[in-house]
Design brief:
Two copies of one chain form a homodimer.
Chain A lengths: L17 H16 L11 E2 L9 E4 L4 E8 L3 H12 L4 H16 L5 E11 L8 H18 L2 E6 L12 E11 L16 E6 L8 H8 L9 E3 L2 E2 H5 L7 H9 L6 E4 L15 E5 L7 H10 L3 H7 L4 E7 L4 H10 L4 E9 L3 E4 L4 E4 L7
Parallel strand pairs in A: 4-5, 11-14
Antiparallel strand pairs in A: 1-2, 2-3, 3-6, 4-6, 7-12, 7-13, 8-9, 10-12, 11-13, 14-15
Chain lengths: ~375, ~375
């Protein structure tokens, strides 16, 4: 019925109502902030600037401790449907997505991820009876740990009938790491005018915007089997695993490139470039090529560039803010890690805003409310 | 229809099929173990003896890093039903349960918990629209952090329509801590004959055995409103929050009591006393009083003592193995923390088994398969 529907599709229509979540988030953030003082009794201290950043950082003396838990979201629903359509399990890719959600956030603060814990909450014991799928999840999880050089510490595999829907699984990852040496801390203290913005390429939608992407599939006559490029189906393209960026951040440090700040481009798309509270203008002069699946979503959802770049990664999965003199070298280091990269813009003095010049798109400082 | 059913109710009948989960667990444990070597590239090393223990431990030089993620399980279903019956939200207690699952595991290795991350995955944004419930969750979470002296670092509040059932929430906690100083590491290297077993009291069912407890409620004519003791309803008794044991383990260290090993008594009940791989006989001469709700479950489910003590905590939520000379002092320290405690038995040379002498119950070394 919806196959000829061409009305624009917004994020709220896709089922995510941020206004219902946000009051709780504010209350939780306030309560959480009040607990940081407990660390003094143990001889440690929170790094207050990490509140509102992508990972929480504690000063434990010889180095900083960083930790995080991250949910994959609803990308498994695409994998489930694609398994039904193709008979193939995509849970190896899904495993990488889940680890990427945690690792890519953790490295923004300058931490080396050390330990990942698995959280696999199934709708019932029978989820694990599909041996091929379960083994794909295990194999993909291990491969992602291998890529990131992290130890898989353990985890939980609860069967939660009555909470998680039958046949579904709720996936998350917790990650702990160290900022070592301490000078690697990249909470933006040195972020400032003159810094270059280096963007790292994405592999596709990664794991944000899936509610929209799933809603869209119901409008397509061939659904997930619709081609987004010759030989590339929509569902398969959506399931390209998220790029793991920790090999790049580790290689940058090893190469002597000092990152001032970093942003993982997830929910809110490029608005995440406005993440740091400092009031700067972020001017983008070069825009990475857009992966076919994201161009397809933009077109099918009838989004203009402002909406597309404000909600999806549009080809840039991670942003580095670093000294301009190191920008080209940073690009080379990333490319040696197999990750495409571009010197895409610079930080300038001025009102807080993001200007994507090639597209004529601008986001004001109030376009992102995370704190 | 089931109100007069008096056939015994086993854990499998209650819906948990461990044999479907275990093959995956074995594969995951094997893959995870193979990743520990990655830590060498960062100048660190895993503590191999922590594999199979309740928290994963990494040697980072000046101290050990411990981390974990733990799921609450299905206890929220009892809170949801009790809210329907009484109009009252029990999510403050539920928050404490969730943190206890993580913190009580983390402290078994000798770690001081430092940071807790919240994982609150709701079936949809509307879960958060019940402000009283949401605020209870926040308040309870903060209060538990205050009790444990941990910093609430942040967390995730995803809305997972299509994965988590509408109106439900999947709760988990990740916890990171340090074993500091290093001598606090309590992986059982010094566990041996002559050690005393000190048991710490539970407040009730804690958060294990809830599938059985819920199944049982459907057999009772008055369900969760059935009295288990004068003035104490079954549902309300089930929702007594799990005891947080980290204040006790911190106070023990401060008092100079050195713990050789510790076991959090959760799933598998007292069989968890057999957790350490060393082959000893654990002889129990004193059994704590059984909380009314657990005695009620045992009676209603028609369990003998072996089944009850082999699946539920039966009044003992945590076990400490420590030098006999310190046992009475450990009890006094726990009681000063408001936690009842008993010198309950001792470790002896001999075949691996647990003998609960006052009950005439014995579990062999093969009664617990965790590795």
């Amino acid at each position: 019925m919806q196959s000829t529907d061409s009305t624009p599709l917004s994020y709220e229509q896709a089922g995510v109502q941020y206004d219902l979540i946000d009051p709780l988030k504010v209350a939780a953030q306030r309560a959480a902030a009040a607990t940081g003082a407990h660390l003094a009794a143990h001889g440690f201290a929170e790094v207050e600037a990490s509140r509102g950043e992508s990972a929480y950082v504690v000063d434990v003396g010889p180095f900083y401790l960083a930790s995080i838990v991250e949910c994959l979201g609803t990308k498994t629903l695409v994998a489930d449907e694609m398994q039904r359509l193709t008979g193939r399990s995509f849970f190896d890719a899904i495993a990488q997505d889940t680890i990427a959600m945690a690792v890519n956030d953790l490295v923004t603060v300058g931490a080396t991820p050390l330990v990942v814990q698995a959280y696999w909450a199934a709708g019932g014991s029978e989820w694990f009876a599909d041996a091929e799928r379960a083994q794909a999840l295990v194999a993909g999880w291990k491969a992602a740990c291998d890529t990131c050089g992290v130890a898989w510490g353990g985890g939980e595999t609860p069967a939660l009938a009555g909470i998680v829907e039958t046949g579904r699984i709720d996936l998350a990852a917790a990650c702990t790491g160290l900022v070592n040496p301490r000078e690697r801390l990249s909470l933006g203290e040195e972020l400032g005018p003159g810094d270059a913005i280096v963007l790292l390429g994405s592999s596709g939608i990664h794991a944000n915007g899936l509610s929209l992407a799933r809603k869209l599939s119901s409008r397509l006559p061939q659904g997930y089997l619709t081609e987004v490029a010759p030989g590339l189906g929509y569902g398969e393209a959506l399931l390209a695993p998220t790029v793991l960026y920790s090999p790049v951040t580790e290689a940058l440090w090893a190469a002597g490139v000092r990152v001032h700040y970093a942003a993982n481009i997830t929910g809110h798309g490029w608005r995440k470039l406005l993440r740091h509270p400092k009031p700067f203008t972020y001017r983008i002069h070069t825009v990475p090529p857009v992966p076919p699946v994201l161009r397809f979503i933009q077109q099918q959802a009838g989004q203009d560039d402002a909406e597309a770049y404000g909600t999806l990664n549009m080809g840039a999965g991670f942003a580095l803010f670093l000294p301009a003199a190191d920008a080209e070298r940073a690009v080379a280091v990333a490319q040696r890690c197999g990750v495409p990269a571009w010197v895409a813009g610079q930080v300038e003095a001025g009102a807080k805003r993001l200007r994507i010049e090639p597209l004529g798109v601008e986001f004001g400082g109030d376009a992102l409310q995370l704190r």
